[in-house]
Design a protein that fits this description.
InterPro entries: SET_dom, SET_dom_sf, SETD3_SETD6_MTase, SETD4_SET. Pfam families: SET. This is SET domain. Residues 21-267 form the SET domain. This protein is an alpha+beta fold. Among the domains are: 4-60 and 226-278, Beta-clip-like, CATH 2.170.270; 290-438, no CATH class. The chain is built from 19 helices and 15 strands. It has an eight-stranded mixed sheet with strand order 1-3-4-12-10-11-5-2, covered by helices on one side. A three-stranded antiparallel sheet has the order 13-14-15. Strands 6-7 form a two-stranded antiparallel sheet. A hairpin with a 5-residue loop joins strand 6 and strand 7. Helix 14 packs across helix 16 (352-388). The longest helix has 37 residues, at 352-388. The chain is globular and about 70 Å long. The structure holds S-adenosylmethionine. S-adenosylmethionine (SAM) binds at residues 35-39, 106, 114, 203-204, 230-231, 233-235, 278-280, 282.
């Protein structure tokens, strides 16, 4: 059972305020939950299908809560950037109605602990060291490939894999762009205050389509801060969240015992995504996956990548517990089949015999050229934590170490679940897999 304690006075004040705004709260309340800040718990036994929280549209904080003159000052800015600017720098009178709510949000210090974007460079940048023969090679990369956007475990071979598409880099760019606009409007404003509210918006908004909008705003701009509902923590299974022109409704998905924590799901996110965007990872995550573009694309000639592109299969390759995704299977077969047979494969026209032969070759490639590299990366990172980890603050150290262990585990499970017996036997004869064997 989780370690749960009372939320405290300011949360009681806010809950009363939320009710005054028309938020309906049934059989749930906020509580402090170890390792998760605040969360929502059942105050009595709850049946499946009970409406737990209803937030009316007029209680939401959206782009419509920001006055036109304040909006106009910013010109072309994302809704995310504008809401953060409104909370951080608008006339205090405009945001004072939200004072009781704001008091319940995390502090900047709390974000500094958990959000990778605020972690010190010792954690986020690669460590390099000089080899005996003059090569400078990376010694330890603490960030997982999906977050750091880099891959490459052997000396002499350093690949800035997804390069600018790493999750952290993308987030930094978004913040930088918004801040550039806001700084023009408020030249004396501090970046720390802005970043604080930008992260509040990042971690607490719900996807919301404003009622009566004529031109659909881009998906990333459909954001709403949702009083009280923003206490819900995330799990890979959770209560149903629905929205319509009247607002948001959260309905229980199953029976809950009194005192039990109740979750919603923020989406089908991998742990790397959750860590970057929300500052935590789950122990159990059915959506967990690893990107494979780095290890795979570096093995595929540019002209073949062109062929994949034309067929609609270039990039976005992933690995889950069950094995590699279908897109990866297609990409791998550019290496194991001739062009004609590759076509047959994507058109589903192989006969049984061809399928069997083809699967063995593809499995072998996946095991040796893809999974083994990932396993190797995880083994090296874990060794790096043993050597350099003590210099890190506690939360990044324990979280990243755990994440790398999950990565190693996931690669191993993918291997066990997807590589066929024949291939395993063959690999066994060659002494097993280097990196995988070590896990
Ligand atoms: C919408 S808020 C939820 C309420 C939040 N826990 C609080 O204290 O106000 C989202 C934030 O809650 C935390 N969180 C959500 N789900 C979590 C989980 N399963 N484990 C740990 N932290 C979680 C993360 O810090 C995330 O950025």
């Amino acid at each position: 059972m989780e370690e749960i304690s009372p939320a405290g006075k300011k949360h009681e004040v806010f809950t009363a305020w939320a009710k005054e705004q028309g938020v309906k709260i049934n059989a749930v309340g906020p509580a402090r939950i170890r390792g998760r800040g605040l969360g929502i718990v059942a105050t009595r036994k709850i049946q499946a299908g009970e409406e737990l929280v209803k937030v009316p549209v007029h209680a939401l904080l959206t782009i419509d809560s920001v006055r036109n003159d304040f909006r106009a000052l910013h010109g072309d800015i994302t809704v995310h950037g504008l809401l953060a600017s409104f909370l951080a720098f608008s006339d205090p009178e405009k945001t004072s109605p939200y004072a009781a709510w704001r008091a319940t949000w995390p502090t900047f210090k709390e974000f500094e602990d958990c959000m990778p974007i605020l972690w010190p460079v010792e954690v986020t940048k690669d460590k390099h060291q000089d080899g005996e023969d003059g090569y400078n090679f990376y010694a330890f990369r603490a960030l997982p490939p999906a977050i750091g956007g880099a891959w490459g475990s052997t000396r002499n071979f350093y690949i800035d894999w997804q390069g600018k598409t790493g999750l952290l880099h993308k987030q930094e760019e978004k913040l930088k762009k918004d801040w550039t606009t806001v700084r023009r409007v408020f030249p004396d404003a501090g970046i720390e205050t802005y970043t604080h509210y930008w992260l509040i918006v990042n971690t607490r908004t719900f996807y919301f389509m404003p009622p009566g909008v004529k031109n659909e705003p881009p998906q990333a701009d459909r954001m709403a801060l949702c009083p009280f509902a923003d206490y819900f923590n995330h799990a890979d299974h959770g209560c149903d969240v629905t929205s319509d022109t009247s607002g948001f409704t959260i309905t229980s998905d199953r029976i809950y015992e009194a005192g039990e924590e109740i979750y919603v799901s923020y989406g089908n996110h991998s742990n790397d995504f959750l860590l970057t965007e929300y500052g935590f990872i789950l122990d159990e995550n059915r959506w967990d996956s690893l990107p494979l573009d780095g290890p795979l694309l570096r093995q595929i000639h540019k002209s073949t990548q062109g062929r994949l592109n034309r067929a609609g299969y270039l990039g976005n390759y992933t690995l889950s517990r069950e094995g590699v995704c279908y897109r990866t299977q297609v990409a791998v077969r550019t290496q194991t089949l001739g062009n004609k047979d590759w076509r047959k494969f994507i058109e589903g026209k192989e006969n049984e015999m061809e399928e069997m032969r083809d699967e063995s070759k593809a499995d072998y490639f996946i095991a040796v050229r893809v999974l083994d590299g990932y396993a190797d990366e995880a083994t090296k990172a874990l060794a790096g934590f043993a050597k350099y980890g003590s210099a890190f603050p506690e939360y990044p150290r324990s979280t990243l170490k755990k994440r790398w262990m999950q990565i190693a585990e996931l690669v191993k499970e993918a291997y066990d679940n997807s590589i066929n017996d024949l291939t395993r036997e063959a690999l066994g004869r060659f002494g097993g897999l280097g990196g995988l064997g070590a896990l």
